[in-house]
Amino acid sequence: MTGILRSGAKYVHIWIGIPFGLLFSLMGLSGSVILYRDAIEAGLRPSWKATSPVKPASVLTEGDRNVRRRWPDAIPNRITFPRAAGEPYEYQIRAGGRPIHAYFDAGTGELLGTFELPWLDQVAGFHQNLLLPPSGRQLVGVIGIALFLSSLSGLTIWFLRNRMWSSTFRIAWGTSWNRLSFDLHRAVGFTANAFLLILSVTGICLGFPETFRGFSEIATGTTGARAPRITVQPASMKMPLDSYVAAAVESVPGGAVREIRLPQAADRPVVVRIWRNGDYREEGSNQVSLDPATAEVIAVDKPANWSAARKLASVPSPIHYAEWGGSVVKTLWAIAGVTPSVLFVSGFWFWFVGYRARSRKVKRSEPAGVLASR
Asked: Which of 91, 114, 137 is at the close of a domain?
């Protein structure tokens, strides 16, 4: 029985790893990059300095006015607040059919400039949906299923071998490439297995969000796994931006405003996201929806009020993108993202050498007449 299980696990491991190995590698590497997206953008962004010493009564209003003056046809999307002293506000808009990230000074509201990293957007888009929205998200989920089966079958093979722990991590550096590839595959695979299982499961959940929300409701016996959709009477924004922020902060005291999401349709509210101590989403888990015309609070969405189903449904994303645990977890996740490349190269090399040796052995064992007839 053990032999059958081992043969089956080996078959699954090989014939998932070979066709999906390159995708595993690309998904892992792209995931490691976007974990540090904020740091990359901050490091490459120009170090602008405001030229005006004037301190306006409202930095938000002044910044909004300057952005709209520069792009009169702009469709505003969101304003991201600085998270550290000296950082600017980021204003995301669409103008002329293309997205623009404009930055204005946190002290004066002066428009500093624009900054784009299209290649980083492509990397993030590839990791999230293979640059094939909307169906690409499901394809990413399928890749997650394949990675889960590959990791689980690899772990099964290890257990059925009854290897000693000491030999699992032993790498014969001074031997043949074939032996080295096997040792690397075994040691790296076993070390990274737990991380890859976690990343694959959370990736599956993100790839099939509706399915996971349904599972969350069944598993917890509660409803409301999806955030409620808030609508308002069609209206345009008529109040200063500070009015929306002030009303939101009053509804969720003790927090830090992360961003303002501006309505993209006439019946949608202004949404202010607020981070409070204990939130595992970096952008904040508290949302305040406000009437665009009056800045009146319509709804306050706090994690403390979520159903058990919604709490469970919200878990995969912050785990997958290492939004919890600080720099230690982020570093571990980034290293784990590199391991599929090591496993694919070492595993393919080890398999190919064995396959070529078996093919030569078969040819040598065939009768001369069979070879001559080919």
From this structure: 114
